[in-house]
Amino acid sequence: MTYGCIASMKARPGLRDEVVSLLLGAADGLRQAGCDLYLVGLSEDDETTIWVTEVWRTREQHDASLELPEAKAAIGRAVPMLTGEFTRQDMAVAGGLGL
Amino acid sequence: MTYGCIASMKARPGLRDEVVSLLLGAADGLRQAGCDLYLVGLSEDDETTIWVTEVWRTREQHDASLELPEAKAAIGRAVPMLTGEFTRQDMAVAGGLGL
Hints:
Structural class of chain A: alpha+beta
CATH architecture of chain A: 2-Layer Sandwich
Helix content of chain A: 25-40%
Distance between the termini of chain A: 13 Å
Oligomer: homodimer
Strand content of chain A: 35-45%
Shape of chain A: globular
Number of helices of chain A: 3
Largest interface: A-B, 36 and 37 residues
Mean pLDDT of chain A: 94
Largest sheet of chain A: 4 strands, antiparallel
């Protein structure tokens, strides 16, 4: 089974759209790094939470992607716009539709 | 923006794989009901939690899908295998990769 994770983060007030733009801008290079799905969503429960669901061919490719210079640069720009509250669930992908 | 949701459920001990099979079996008909993504994952934190991430063209199509006879039958078979602990996050899909 492939590796997946579901993560959440919270943007500081008024900055959610800017963080989402950063995340979407970083998505371009992920395919060749081994990513099959990268889904960014805005919580409807509040105006600060962002959900990211990812599927990777292997967990090692996911971990390695965080060390890419573009990823580090994007993370560096995003962190000051975030509250520091994160959640993350790792999972083994069983399958589904649209992958 | 399209509608998405991230849900979790917990299977009774030893029944997670059976519930996952039910969920995956129900995935076939979802595309024509308006579903673009239906991702089923097994939590790596424990042996009971199942995560489901969905993307639908509209929220109305998602809600209507729960009323389909096949869906009701699958839910009826799954419920006795679940603990009753659910979470669900609704979201507006901002975009990403692989959709």
